[in-house]
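Quiz preparation item.
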């Protein structure tokens, strides 16, 4: 059975919004975008490329899908190591507002019960599935005990506001640390597994 792995960058205060650039996700007047860039070293790059290229596909919420679909098909050549698997691998999109067919290649709209659809995907063959961004989807999957691992790059920065990965509505749960690594910039790449509620 495949795992569902949540794979995100977060600030020390838990914000995941707009890590790469100021204009990535300026919704709700957010103006701290690009906070992850100073902490992106060779260790972080290797982790990110291995995570993306080794995936069996991606589970995305609507907002993350729209951001990615606008960027990755036209990504610059220097980002080819990430763009190639992002464009080639299947994307499964949880949305009640988007309509099929989706425009980004290999993207499929998950219809009906998202938890049931993800359970079915987990039973399929292939590499593990990754959730990137998509806090609402993460919350839903965690509520149904469908998240097998949280892989987080925790950057040593506090931004004060923005969308939090584990915000309001996230049920209390304990995690156990599987492995961790400190980057040259002081960021921590940590992998946790649920340890029960």
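Solution:
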């Amino acid at each position: 059975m495949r795992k569902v792995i949540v794979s995100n960058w977060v600030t020390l205060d838990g914000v995941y919004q707009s890590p790469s650039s100021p204009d990535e996700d300026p919704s709700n007047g957010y103006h701290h975008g690009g906070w992850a860039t100073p902490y992106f070293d060779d260790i972080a790059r290797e982790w990110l490329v291995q995570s993306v290229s080794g995936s069996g596909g991606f589970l995305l919420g609507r907002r993350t899908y729209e951001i990615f679909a606008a960027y990755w098909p036209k990504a610059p050549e220097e980002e080819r190591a990430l763009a190639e698997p992002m464009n080639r691998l299947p994307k499964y999109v949880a949305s009640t507002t988007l309509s099929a067919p989706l425009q980004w290649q290999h993207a499929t709209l998950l219809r009906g019960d998202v938890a049931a659809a993800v359970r079915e995907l987990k039973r399929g063959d292939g590499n593990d599935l990754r959730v990137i961004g998509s806090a609402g989807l993460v919350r839903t999957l965690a509520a149904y005990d469908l998240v097998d691992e949280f892989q987080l790059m925790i950057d040593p920065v506090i931004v004060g506001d923005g969308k939090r990965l584990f915000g309001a509505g996230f049920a209390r749960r304990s995690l156990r640390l599987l492995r961790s690594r400190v980057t040259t910039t002081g960021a921590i790449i940590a992998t946790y597994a649920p340890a029960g509620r």
